[in-house]
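Troubleshooting log. The previous structure file for this entry was overwritten by mistake, so regenerating from the original sequence record. Sequence copied from the archived sheet and checked twice against the printout by T.R.
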Amino acid sequence: MQKLLVCYKWVLDEQDIKITGDLSLDTSKAKYKISDYDKNAIEAGALLAEQHGVAVEALTFGNAAVKQSLKDALSRGLDKVFWIGDAAAEQADAFVTANVLAAAIKKAGQFALILCGEGSADAYSQQTASRLAVLLGIPAITFVQQLSITDGKVTAIRKLGDCTEAVTVTGPAVISVLPEINKPRIPGLKQVMGAAKKPAAEWKLNDLGLAAGDLTPKVRKLSVQGYVMDRKKVIFKEADQADNVAKLVASLAQEGLC
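Regenerated output below.
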């Protein structure tokens, strides 16, 4: 089996973000971290690599701060990280992000699987895996909660609402994983110290051969505002679900929402 690749995003820690009086976000004291969803993807890649004796590498695209992520990422079982730090990432939407990652993957070589989190902890657009698959011309398997490889065939259990779907594919493929697929490891001192000796390769955005249109966002972010819930929480617990629905509709109508 060929080596594996994991895509991850370096995001602001939402626990450090404060909502001010005018609902704007105060990020002045917020630290960065690997998106929690992507930690599951990294763990899935590391476990598969350990089980099958193959290498697992990672790719990330972010602003200049993304360089700070390398040691943490490499301490989680990865063998190498490719990173692209550019100010364009500040305004990049799912379209631009996928274009950059796809171009970098083509430059990095062949991979049996490309793993992503189901979404990022900031934008949570849930589009990266699907867009990557289209750009690379390979299958996408999304919302995966179980993943295994036997005799070169990838078997994935997808979570679809209140049911599941088993999918088998012969790679390469792009796979997005759900948080319940695993519990990300907490690197120990040995892993953290060892990460400093692992390779990391920086690529400039200009090295990827992308056209200006590939780097022009389709979605323009005007501002971001926090959300404060001011509505009283009401739980309807009638035995008959029809009664619960009727009470819900009546409550919404009372608030002028329907």
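The helical segments are 36-52, 70-74, 94-108, 128-136, 189-195, 241-254. Archived copy saved in two places this time.
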